[in-house]
């Protein structure tokens, strides 16, 4: 008889964005991440609202989404650059190790 492993449980998380309530399905292990993301999104939406411009809910959300996507892209580019730098260091270290082995 085969053993059945339980799948990751998904629960509905209740969140509020711009005074609207939403139910979002979320795996248990990602619950805190989702709630942190909602807090960040709410903060950014409130900043957009507080700038005094009368923005529709959709426009404010879109503007914040674009800004967060740009932040994500900048972070990815920074990570790629650091990974590249690490690869160069690794190559240089390997060259030094190879040179040291050759002089033994």
TrEMBL record:
Subcellular location per the Swiss-Prot or TrEMBL entry: Cytoplasm
The keyword Cell division belongs to this UniProt entry's keyword annotation: yes
Transmembrane portions of the chain: none
This protein's UniProt keywords: Cell cycle, Cell division, Coiled coil, Cytoplasm, Septation
A matching Pfam family: ZapA
GO terms classed as biological process: cell division
Keyword Signal: no
Coiled coil: 31-99
Gene3D superfamilies: Cell division protein ZapA protomer, N-terminal domain
Entry function: Activator of cell division through the inhibition of FtsZ GTPase activity, therefore promoting FtsZ assembly into bundles of protofilaments necessary for the formation of the division Z ring. It is recruited early at mid-cell but it is not essential for cell division.
Subunit structure comment from the entry: Homodimer. Interacts with FtsZ.
The protein's name in its UniProt record: Cell division protein ZapA
Organism of origin: Acidithiobacillus sulfurivorans
């Amino acid at each position: 008889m085969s053993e059945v492993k339980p799948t990751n449980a998904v629960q509905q998380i209740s969140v509020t964005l711009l005074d609207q309530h939403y139910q979002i399905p979320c795996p248990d292990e990602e619950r805190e991440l989702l709630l942190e993301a909602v807090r960040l999104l709410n903060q950014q939406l409130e900043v957009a609202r507080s700038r005094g411009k009368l923005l529709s809910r959709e426009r404010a959300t879109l503007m914040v989404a674009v800004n967060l996507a740009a932040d994500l892209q900048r972070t990815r580019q920074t990570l790629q650059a650091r990974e590249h730098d690490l690869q160069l260091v690794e190559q240089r270290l390997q060259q030094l190790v190879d040179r040291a082995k050759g002089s033994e």
